[in-house]
Design goal:
This protein has about 80 residues and is mainly beta. Helices cover about 0% and strands about 50% of the residues.
Length: about 80
């Protein structure tokens, strides 16, 4: 049985997590917003470039993320 491919959605910059729009089990389509970050008083939506089902959410509102940190995992 082939193993399902996983995709990690990463933070592109140092930022605060304002909102997480998904939870494990949520179906995500290309273009869906999965989180909202804030950096330098600007809100930055995190948009999925892949379709799949959320298997893990690695952040919560109030967290500070660094560039390259995993935000959400899709399968």
């Amino acid at each position: 049985m082939p193993r399902a491919q996983t995709v990690e959605i990463l933070a592109e910059m140092v930022a605060n997590v304002l909102e997480v729009a998904v939870e494990p089990g949520t179906a995500v389509a290309v273009g869906d917003e999965v989180a909202l970050l804030e950096s330098m008083k600007m809100e930055i939506p995190v948009i999925s470039e892949h379709a799949g089902t959320v298997t893990a959410v690695k952040v919560a509102p109030g967290d500070v993320v660094q560039e390259g940190d995993v935000l959400v995992v899709l399968a």
